Amino acid sequence: MPIPLLERVLAHGDRPAVLDAEGRHPYTELIDASARAARRLLAGRSDLGEGRVAFLTPPGAVYPTVQWGIWRAGGVAVPLSTLHPPPELAYTVEDSGAEIVVGHPGFEERLRPVAEAAGRRYLSTAALLAPAGEPAGELPDVEAGRRATIVYTSGTTSRPKGAVTSHAAMAAQISSLVEAWGWRADDRILLALPLHHVHGIVNVAGCAQWSGALCEMPPGFDAERVWERFASGELTLFMAVPTIYRRLIAVWEEAPESRRRRWSEGARRLRLMVSGSAALPVPTLERWREIAGHTLLERYGMTETGMILSNPLDGERRPGCVGAPLPGVEVRRVDEGGEVVEDPATPAEVEVRGPGLFREYWGSSEATADAFRDGWFRTGDVAVVEEGSYRLLGRKSVDIVKTGGYKVSALEVEEVLRTHPAIAECAVVGVPDPEWGERVAVAVELADGGELTLDELRAWARERLAVYKVPSRLRVVETLPRNALGKVVKPELAKSLAGAAPR
Ligand code: MCA
Ligand code: AMP
Q: Which of 233, 253, 263, 435 could pair with 227 in a Cys bridge, judged by C-beta atoms 3.0 to 4.6 Å apart?
């Protein structure tokens, strides 16, 4: 089985892999179940030959079982989001050209009609993993260079793009983190993140699987539950986005003294806590240090590259900085013309090279070509370097918003909102927010006779967009601020929207 991650997994034997609502699942159980899943996906064929399989499961042992089953059948795993309404699910299924859609029974009502409308084969995880009537047959040889997964990510184009990663690249992303953060077989991590993005898939689940560690997978993020798990003294690792640390701090502040003490003492016993996916505000880092006894290790990455820069496991973690290149990752900073900028204090765009990079945007050779310069991936993030540690200053594009760790394309949201009957024109921007990092905000020019409240707009938009893309600030304007060329001046708009009607 030359899929590098699964070769590692095979060596873990009966060690516990996942703890979920059903209990503990050893690695052997997941491996055996994934072989059954693979044979059922194959349904008599010898190899899915990089056919895409979209899947939607809650967090738990079922997730790696299906993911590995797809890989072992020679397919490409396309994780769907539990937060996506049918139009977004349909987009991912269609754009990826998924031939099979796999759904947990809990999502069948939402997902089966999507698969059927697109004319794709729908398979329930209950049928896929049923122990009885196991089909026989050889599984294909899957080379490490094959496509492994497509993760959809928003960008400067309207609709999300599918970033394709090979098994070898995924292994490079994982092994770099395992080395840098000292992952061990006796580690135990609590998953608090969704499993359709790299932070949850690679940094948490993938690294645990590579190392033979145990990953606890509760149904979703619940701040009190996380503190209780810290208090148990059983965890060694925790990784989350800044919004989650903010939530944990808020719940701690409200707890009675005796509980606070128990929670804080438990948190101190973990060996490492990591923050990433969005800028960690220094006050959050400082408050966390006071109440949990950890200086959060902040790191920086992207869906297309895996993790790029990280503060050190041992040694000084500079507040407000994201550290130095991870093992196997090359980083440079360039100016507008693509010239390397040597002066560390001059802001410049970060570019990345290395074995962990994605291969392509699915079905878009043009977008793929645009994303690279001389073999270097252009991140669109601007940074300076302070005593060897990178400090991110922001993104080049105003059309990308990061809210609670999710990347949102302003253009995608605008395109959907323009189809609302009361909206003549609109512009979406990110506005700074202490809880979410940024919030999605919209300024709207109404159609003749149109009326709109934020609640109405949210209810309407939630049926079409993932809830984290739905604006939570609205301002109705006579005219949007435009420059001489008629283009909306978004920085100006962002300033005025910072005080718009909140929810
Ligand atoms: C939930 N809501 C949001 C968000 N999440 N609104 C804006 N931005 C969000 N991120 C909505 C809810 O639907 C709800 O709407 C209201 O806000 C409050 O929901 P609540 O239940 O309080 O939120 P939650 O469900 O607890 O979610 C908060 C969360 C979640 C746990 C922080 O946003 C999350 O899991 N974020 C992590 C995303 C992530 O993994 N990003 C990594 C991408 P209503 O009130 O209307 O019902 S990978 C990446 O970035 C790279 C590779 C990297 O470097 O890691
Ligand atoms: P995604 O496309 O969801 O993978 O998000 C990648 C983007 O998240 C990067 O290009 C950065 O803009 C942002 N990001 C990730 N980690 C950090 C961090 N530690 N600080 C600031 N921004 C970050």
A: 263
Write the residue with the smallest CA distance to atom 7 of ligand 2: 302
32-43 mean pLDDT: 96
Can you give the length of the chain in residues? 503
pLDDT at 322: 98
Q: How large is the average pLDDT for residues 24-38?
A: 97
Q: Which of 244, 307, 389, 402 to mutate to test the pocket of ligand 2 (most atoms within 8 A of CB)?
A: 402
Contact yes or no for 299/305 (Cβ under 8 A): no
Q: Is 233 left (phi over 0), alpha (psi -120 to 50) or beta?
A: left
Looking at the CA of 403, name the nearest ligand: 1
Structure tokens at 409: 């394309």
pLDDT in tens, 289-301: 999 999 999 999 9
Written as six digits, the tokens of 477 are: 């304007």
Tokens 């009361």 — which residue? Answer: 422
Please tell me the distance from the alpha carbon of residue 499 to that of residue 400, in angstroms, as a whole number.
Answer: 20
Decide if 211 contacts 177 (C-beta within 8 A): no
Which of the ligands is closest to the CA of residue 280?
2
What is the rounded CA–CA span in Å between residue 146 and residue 425?
44
Atom of ligand 1 nearest to the CA of 462: 46
Q: List 361's β-bridge partners, or say none.
A: 163
Which residues is 437 bridged to in the sheet?
Answer: 403, 433
Q: Which residue has the tokens 């070509």?
A: 369
Please determine, for residue 502, whether its predicted confidence score (pLDDT) is greater than 80.
no
User: Residue 247 CA: which ligand 1 atom is closest?
Assistant: 32
Q: 221 to each of 309, 384, 444, how far by Cα in Å? A: 26, 34, 33
pTM: 0.97
- Count CB atoms within 10 A of the CB of residue 119: 8
Asked whether 279 lines ligand 2 (CB < 6 A), one says yes
* Structure tokens, 271: 């060996």
Q: Which helix (H) or strand (E) holds 402?
A: strand 400-403
How far the first Cα of the chain sits from its last, in Å, is 51
Report the nearest-CA residue for atom 3 of ligand 1. 468
The Cα–Cα gap between 269 and 218 comes to 21
Which DSSP state fits 48?
-
